[in-house]
Write a structure and sequence with these properties.
By secondary structure, the chain is of the alpha+beta class. The protein has 26 helices and 27 strands. An eleven-stranded mixed sheet has the order 1-27-2-3-6-7-8-9-17-18-22, with helices on one face.
Length: 792
């Protein structure tokens, strides 16, 4: 054998060994990845001994993974629910507790550092510990059982949830304070945490004058649909620009309103005589879903028995919205006033002191530490007062403090939840709602006897001298909070004459009731008005009829904007790109359908016009606003009115006329068609812009993860100003329709499904029902898996 031949054989052998080694390495990596993901799967069947239980708990799951828990005590139900949350949703819970504490960067890195700094000044971990120290024994016992269950569920996994391997960190055990931090995370998500709305209004009053600021940020508008029918007077249009704005930097369109729809019909309008309640809560959408469905059944005597089904929030041991066979209830974010900006008056002789009605107080500085995963820690100085933390500086240099309901020592309390889940009537449910301590919500409830009601759930501050929505000094005692309204003072609407109730983050009441609740930026009312009209259009209801209202994608709020766009296109049809839009806009169909070009053009015109106008008018505060929202999420009525009436004296710089403004908006619209669709209008559909956009929090940072975790990103019907709310990554986080005592005919839809682990046998189960608006059962279905937890 020649040397050349031997070398050739050696090269081939080495090549085969190398290929084999690479294949073996790839197989090992694939096996390791599979082991990580498979190790996140929950225990579905068998028997398991668990310390702390008083008796056995049976957990039966249906094919979609929705569990029914059966136990002899409420504490055992809490522990078992914690076990399920810990197994299926621990990483999600971890994100929530860290969001509440301002500790996200310690898990996900520097990208969350600025968010952490803003949130850490509220020191909610310390506040949570203080609440725990004074928590009543019955609440603490239930909480401790839940916490034990969470950690037992986590420990039972063969591998920590896969996200921790991707982030190269280990999960920290769940603590009782973490459950309270989950509630604080919802305070951040649903309420103003630094008084920007009041601060913005003060800046605009100074920059534009009060009359123009009043007009651009009105308290009421003709779109509203309050249940009590009390309309607010229309804000007059200013006669002139008292201070002419100058051109400013571009601004972002308004973010989606964090809110929900909830409505009810009384038993007089149903075949069974029982009320029907519908609720769809609009929040950020991601994988897994924020909610976890469950049915909790406590066996025992008539006094102790419990059968409650609906929505749970991983991190908490309660059903948040649902039915207990006697009552059904839901929530929408209320947008009542729960915080006020306080201007701090420095003491005349010492800047380290400030004035209060009780005399001078020393400004306290607390040093906290914010740490970054795999990085350094840095000190954070937090200035605190008797009213809360310092969040900003006013134009005159005074400190601005945010006095917020969430900072109250009683901001979290579970007695209301415990009372609500056992309420047997609308009256008992209202009494329980007034004991709830949570981010204030519109509470809609109906009972098996056919009664329905609305009120505010949560504490309502008694605010004095603060009706104008501006920052004020509280130093002389004439302005401030004087405790909270007593339950009997909180407005209620019980059994309205028409047998219908509706809330959609809008103003619900007027007059004295509104004065008690205040206004933190109600939605302008388009959704509420459409829901009201849908309810009034029928005289008899079944569950499917209420689901149809939840899925209503008619764009009634945009009808005036379609007319404005049509007029603008007609005036400029000598431009070919604009003339081509005319037939689509004429026949737009008044629906937000995925394949509609006309709807996207109308919606794009409205969005571009509102953005252009508010960028122009608010230019004087552009520096102070930086990236903060200057477009009110509550109304587009001022822009609609300006473009309709076209007052020559209110044209903002740098524009010379309303024609010029209209043309500028049309040019932006034409440019969007060119950039996205190459000028092909037929491709410029609503579904290309409005899609599900549901992703795992890490899928954008980890290559290929989204293929395993994320559902298909499909075009969707709906939008923000109609009942069927959906924008990319935002929308109905659940849809439920249920009649107490008739849960078997109820409806429940949830994007993403139950599972948190992508290899779960029911991952994404039920997601398509949500996408298509197809009714799926409210109660869990037939038993598919059975797990028994036994006292150990």
């Amino acid at each position: 054998m020649t040397r050349r031949r031997r070398n050739e054989q050696r090269r081939r052998r080495n090549w085969r060994i190398g290929v084999g080694a690479v294949a073996l390495l790839l197989a090992a990596c694939a096996g390791f990845v599979y082991w990580i993901f498979a190790g996140s799967l929950p225990m579905l069947e068998g028997r398991l001994r668990v310390a702390g239980l008083d008796g056995p708990v049976e957990i039966g799951r249906d094919a979609a993974g929705v569990p029914t828990l059966r136990a002899g005590s409420r504490a055992d139900l809490a522990q078992a629910l914690g076990f399920l949350h810990g197994q299926e949703r621990f990483f999600q819970m971890d994100l929530l507790r860290r969001a509440g504490a301002g500790e996200l960067s310690a898990l996900v890195g520097a990208r969350a550092l600025e968010v952490d700094k803003a949130r850490r000044r509220h020191r909610f971990r310390s506040r949570a510990e203080a609440i725990l120290a004074n928590m009543p024994q019955d609440q603490r016992a239930l909480l401790d059982a839940y916490v034990a269950g969470v950690n037992q569920g986590l420990a039972t996994l063969s591998h920590a949830p896969f996200e921790y391997s991707l982030l190269r960190v280990s999960p920290a055990p769940w603590q009782a304070a973490d459950t309270l931090l989950v509630v604080y995370a919802m305070y951040f998500d649903l309420q103003d945490s630094d008084g920007w709305s009041e601060r913005r209004r003060a800046l605009l009053d100074q920059a534009l004058g009060p009359s123009l600021a009043d007009f651009l940020y009105p308290n009421g508008n003709p779109h509203e649909a309050p249940i009590d029918g009390i309309m607010l007077p229309e804000v007059p249009m200013p006669e002139t620009l008292s201070k002419a704005p100058a051109a400013g930097a571009p601004i972002e369109p308004p973010a989606p309103v964090k809110g929900s729809n909830s409505f009810a019909v009384s038993g007089s309008l149903t075949a069974t005589g029982a009320a029907i309640v519908a609720n769809d809560e609009h929040l950020g959408l991601r994988m897994p879903n924020i909610w976890y469905r469950a049915r909790l059944v406590q066996t025992g005597t008539a006094e102790s028995a419990l059968d409650i089904a609906g929505t749970t929030l991983p991190g908490l041991p309660f059903v948040i919205a649902g039915s207990n066979t006697h009552i059904a209830w839901g929530f929408t974010n209320s947008y009542i006033a729960t915080g006020d900006a306080v201007l701090l008056d420095p003491a005349p002789t010492n800047a380290d002191y400030y004035l209060t009605p009780q005399g001078q107080k020393m400004l306290q500085t607390v040093t906290d530490q914010v740490c970054v995963a795999h990085g350094d820690c840095q000190d954070l100085a937090i200035e605190e007062t008797v009213w809360g933390p310092v969040v900003a500086r006013a134009a005159d240099g005074r400190r601005i403090v945010w006095h917020w309901l969430a900072q109250d020592p009683n901001a979290i309390d579970f007695k209301g939840e415990l009372a609500l889940e056992r309420a047997g009537s609308v009256r008992e449910a209202l009494d329980a709602a007034h004991q709830l301590a949570l981010p204030d919500q519109n509470f809609v409830v109906g009972d098996a006897a056919g009664h329905i009601a609305w009120s505010i759930a949560g504490q309502v501050p008694r605010r004095v001298g603060l009706a104008d929505g501006l920052p004020h000094s509280w130093a002389d005692g004439t302005r401030g909070w004087q405790g909270y309204l007593a339950p009997e003072e909180v407005p209620e609407i019980v059994d309205p004459p028409g047998g219908r109730l509706w809330t959609a983050n809008n103003r619900i009441v007027g007059g004295d009731a509104l004065a008690k609740l205040g206004d933190a930026g109600y939605d302008q009312g388009d959704r509420a008005r459409q829901i009201r009209d849908d309810l009034l259009a029928r005289e008899h209801f079944a569950e499917a009829d209420l689901l149809a209202i939840q899925l209503d994608d008619r764009a009634t709020a945009l009808v005036p904007w379609q007319k404005l766009l049509l007029a603008g296109l007609t005036a400029h049809q000598d431009t070919a790109s604009l003339a081509a839009m005319l037939p689509y806009v004429r026949d737009w169909g008044v629906r937000a359908e995925p394949d509609s070009v006309g709807y996207r053009l109308v919606r794009g015109f409205e969005s571009e016009a509102v953005t252009l106008l508010y960028a122009a008018y608010t230019a004087p505060i552009a520096k102070e606003a930086e990236k903060r929202q200057v477009i009110p999420h509550s109304t587009t009525w001022p822009a609609e009115r300006l473009l309709t009436e076209r007052p020559a004296n209110l044209v903002p710089a740098p524009y010379k006329s309303w024609d010029e403004i209209t043309l500028a908006v049309l040019d932006k619209l034409a440019l969007a068609v060119q950039d996205e669709a190459g000028g092909d209008l037929a491709r410029f559909t609503w579904g290309r812009q409005n899609h599900t956009g549901i992703h795992h929090p890490l899928s954008g940072a980890v290559p290929l993860l989204g293929r395993l975790t994320d559902p298909p990103d499909v075009g969707m019907a709906g939008d923000g100003m109609m009942p069927r709310v959906i924008n990319p990554g935002f929308g109905a986080s659940e849809r439920l329709v249920v009649s107490p005592g008739h849960e078997a005919s109820g409806i429940y839809e949830m994007p993403g499904g139950q599972a948190g682990a992508p290899l779960s046998p029911y991952y994404l189960a039920g997601h398509e029902d949500w996408v298509e608006g197809k009714p799926s059962p409210f109660l869990p279905g037939a038993l598919r898996w059975r797990l028994v937890l036994e006292p150990g």
